[in-house]
């Protein structure tokens, strides 16, 4: 849709996602909701793909498998676009500082369509938006990118896709042998992945590593 501003929405609540898409896509002719995502890794992949990258991403802070701040940080480490507006159904103070540290350009509550529209306008023009937590300072996307690109991935952010898959299955309660069968690899390969995960996270046991991954996802 030529001439319209590309917008994307990431939220693991399908009802909220549909409502936001309706409010923003159908009622605002200048906006084109090009895609939506319910999973964090999908949102990251699309934002890093130049062909799918929107001008602005509305990002829920309480995504399920991967936390909102983690998604935001991963996107921002790779570039200044898209601009990111964090959204939440919780009290803003819960996520404001985390969103700012992760490179978002603002935070707004989901239950105020008027405030969301206002925030979108501000962020799209290069500004930052924070009507809820005055003690927190947000950066524009360029400044956030300059800060975060200098910071190497830490902790869970250093895990490979295969290591993440192993940890996902560990959190589901599978044994290492069962994980090997699920992934179609040898049990020794799974044990190697576990050893590397523990080394990267500084964990002494697999149980500790699992807890660290869970804390990262729901931070």
Helix share bin = 40-55%
Strand content: 5-15%
User: Helices and strands: which structural class?
Assistant: alpha/beta
CATH class of the largest domain: Alpha Beta
Radius of gyration: 18 Å
Task: Give me the side-by-side strand order of the main sheet.
Answer: 2-1-3-4-5-6
> How many helix segments?
10
Overall 3D shape: elongated
Main sheet specs: 6 strands, parallel
CATH architecture of the largest domain: 3-Layer(aba) Sandwich
Element-by-element helix/strand order: EHEHEHEHEHEHHHHH
Low-confidence stretches: none
Average per-residue pLDDT, rounded, comes to 89
- Total discrete domains: 2
Pfam family, one: GerE
InterPro entries: CheY-like_superfamily, Sig_transdc_resp-reg_C-effctor, Sig_transdc_resp-reg_receiver, Tscrpt_reg_LuxR_C, WalR-like, WH-like_DNA-bd_sf
GO biological process, one term: regulation of DNA-templated transcription
Domain Response regulatory: 6-125
